Fold this protein.
Amino acid sequence: MSTKHQVIFYPVGNGDTTQIILHNARRVLFDFCHRTKGEDPDTPEIDLKVRLKSELKDANREDFDVVAFTHADLDHIQGSTDFFWLEHAAIYQEKGRIKIKELWLPAAMLVEEATREQQSSEFVILRREARHRLLTGKGIRVFSKPPELLEWLHPKLKERGESINARDHLFVDAGTLVPSFDLTNDQVEFFCHSPFIEHCEDKDIVRNSAALVFNVRFDADGKRLDYLEIGDAEYADLEQIVSTSRYHGNEDRLHWDLFNIPHHCSYKALAEDKGKEETVPVPLVQDLLNLGQRGSYIVSCSCPITDTKEAYEQKLPPHIQARKAYTRYLNAVGGRRFLVTMEEPNGTKPQPLVFNIESGGVTWDKAIAGAAAIITSRPPRAG
Amino acid sequence: MAYYLAVGAILADETAITLPRTRALLTALRRHRDFEVLELRAFTLSDGSRAEVLVVEVIGDDIPEHNPHGVQYRERMQIIVEAAPERVPGVYALRQGFPRLAHQHQRACGSPAWLCLYFESALETLRSWTPERFLQRIQWWLAKSARGELHPADQPLENLFFATTYELVLPWNLEALVQAKTALEVRLAHHRDQGATFRLQPLSKNDDGEAVVFVEVTLNPVLAGAVEFNCDTLGDLDDTLAARGSSLLPVLTPAVRALVGNSGVKPGVEQQKTLLLVHVPMHRSEGEAPENTKRYAFLLSQSAIEIGLATGALTKVGTAVYSSEIHMQPEAHDEWRILSVEPIDVVQEPSAPLLRLYGGLSDAGPIGVFLGAGTLGSAVLGVWGRSGWGQWTVVDKDYMRPHNLARHVAFNQQVGMPKSQVIADLHRFAVPGADPMHSVVADVMADAVGDVAKQFATAKVVIDSTAGVDYGRLASTQPTLPRHASIYLTPSGNASVTLVEDSARRATLRTLEAQSYRAVVQQDWGATHVELPAGYFWSGASCRDLSTVLAYPRVILHAGTLAEQLPAMLAQTTAAIRVWQQAAQGALEVHDVPAFAEVVRERDGVTVLWDEGLEAELRQWRSDALPKETGGVLLGYWDFNRNSLTIAAALPAPRDSQASEGGFERGVENLKRAVKEANRRTGGMLGYVGEWHSHPRGRTSRPSADDLVQLVYLALGMAEDGLPAAQMIIGERDVNISLGSLIKAT
């Protein structure tokens, strides 16, 4: 049987949730953004919890191999703490919660300080979970190893009577591969672009800059295909990633056949200036965009991006000017489509974007329409 | 990129488009995000009719970029629409480097690749053709091609038994031949080491087999009863004949003299036998005309010349033999009396009544038309022909191809002949005594007023053994036609289905077809009814020459069953649906499906069809749910050749549906699986066509405001497939059907 991996993007509004299903059935979930309003069938956002549970049930599973939170912004973690089984406290262990075999987080999520009011916030709960897993040394990978974290970790390890190096194997540095997967056994490898250590050295952590960025390299029967997974990042972070990769001779890790563009199509991931009609990316970001491969796709995890007069004035992402810039570069490299999670197949009831990764390349497995779609939906009530 | 020039002259704008199908395609193209219209063109075909051309670019997101076949993400195509509505639009790839792929029509070098989009005939294709589906098909073809996945037959004892290794076969119609004074001859048909078969036949121009000299003797009529020929010599034989008032020499003498003629012959060196045939007319009492004739034959080891010389009928002068009439006073001889004779078996070719007698049939069968001389048809006709059942006109448009020999009652020499002619010839070769089969080489779908129609005038029954559903559906719309029955095999040959109309044709083939699908969907045996064939093979150069692997034993198994059972079913006046299905270890299970009368409603120019059985089922579900409403989805199919929607089955409410006394919201639990399964079980025939729901106690089936909202929703959804949506409502006493479709603004 020929190899087929899948990458699925869920329509969660301006938010991120992406799942990789490997040919060998291992599942990696990037971010979790459950919109409560998605539970109402009349809203366009997907009911993420119901959807993911149904997918897992079909696969006869109750867990993910990996859940990665790229950073702690609400649109990347929302609803996660009442969906997942958390190891650190019994109140998060009711029946029906989904288990995480391995949790991936940027170090920033473990050191970020919280105010008293924020103690019940989800990022704080996830911080507790991460610290618990790190201390017990099970089911976690922490990306970058800032001194602040070690200042907390080392005394705790001493208290447990363990060596201060006892958790070193759980840390992953930028510029290296995550040991949890390899091309031989999984036909995939995760190369960590970010965070760099300096991202976390500042007392004033900028979450987006300290976020996880990966080159996910798939192997499909000998064909190499690259997926660039960026949660939220700004152009300066991308500049740094491009120059660092070049410096270390890792420019091939910037290639992309599939690109999850940063921050819901914000112009800030391209340049300082939004531009009137179209954002002009800074040179290094241009270089990154030019590394798109023939037949590639760009995905914007965002609300629909319309080309109306008002759209040009819009403050919050997504930005039409950025879309136009991305589309220009996509066309130039012989790419295929710029797709928006909340637009497919329509803005009223978008369906997840499913991409197949096979030796022939990346193909978009379109959502069904017509009779096939009606039988999977509830028609309006008959009287 | 280099492209071939599209055909035709460029049209200024779309107002110059005149063909409705082009317009519909253009609308669908404009709505489709993956197609871009580049040019509109038109030209005149050699027959003077108009053709319009849409030059488009299509992109395929499921085409792998690095596919080994070289299909590109974006391809330029010309779609040629001909004025004749029965012509499916042609699709040509204009890119000069477009690959040579499996499913293309033959084309001249240096011209655009002509995509072969459909396996089915134009008729079958157009049955469910919509512009939207056509566009989907182009994309499907490109993606599948890119991935290399498009592949894709009481005799009373009147003499002592005797053992002989020789036999004489009489023609089945000997009496008629004798009456007509037809010249007859005997030929040695087959010579064996210890014997031979001779055939008595009309004098034929061809000289198959060696001619044998024979002499006939007809006795005076005898009373019914035994005539015992117990003779070893020609003398004994003559004595026996003399006892019956006949004599051998007066008939033998002129017969042998005729052989030498006036000029005499020189006897050959070869030893030649002589056959003596004795006709014994039988009558019941003296003075009455004979009722029949018994025949006896004897073989003499001498040649007729030798016998003639022995009797003195001939005489030898020098080396030549002449009639002894050359002598003034011929000498009588007695030598002939000691010539030994051997009685041989006399058998007759069977006539139709004899065939039926041998087969245990009491009924002669109808005068009928048999449509389709294919695998199953030829086998069933082979059985009926040999059984002498029915007088058939066989209609088929195809001719014999080499691969047909694997499962067709035909000979290699007949390859290239029309199939109907093959069957008629084989029948004649096999059992010339049976009623002849007539062959009509015609497409029954295209020849409604030609040779086929003439046959219908005298036929009492039409057997539809065509391999498709189209003829049955067409015939169902023709009330003047005779009673029809349809027989077919499932693709793997594991099951056969028989649909028999009632003699008044209230339940025609089309509703029986639909009802059989419902049974397949609902009954346990339906799960294994349509098995995929064991494989496929290419039987020719055209892309429609995809044949399925089908074991001949299965064909024969079902042909035998059908040939036996169908006459019994036709003997009844009621409609019937019967399925025979093979179970483990070859057991054949029979499933009778109740047949119901058809319900026909016209809606917006569409004929909507269902049956009373479906209605009764929905009514039962309604009463089970009362006082609440209930509902579910409708399964059926569109036939654009007939402009009809057939609702064949319905599914009950999914478990997660919300029902109240005032409303019903259909759920989704297990629905996709159930619809998919219904589709699988019916070989892709049944699909979702709409929704049904019930109205509460005392309420009619009139649609409520909510119902209309639902219909709009369904219509919008179904428009993606280019189809209207159906909504059926079951009221206290009545049933309402509505169709909703998206009207495209022009």
Summary: Chain B touches chain A through 48 residues (CB under 8 Å). Chain B has a mean pLDDT of 88.
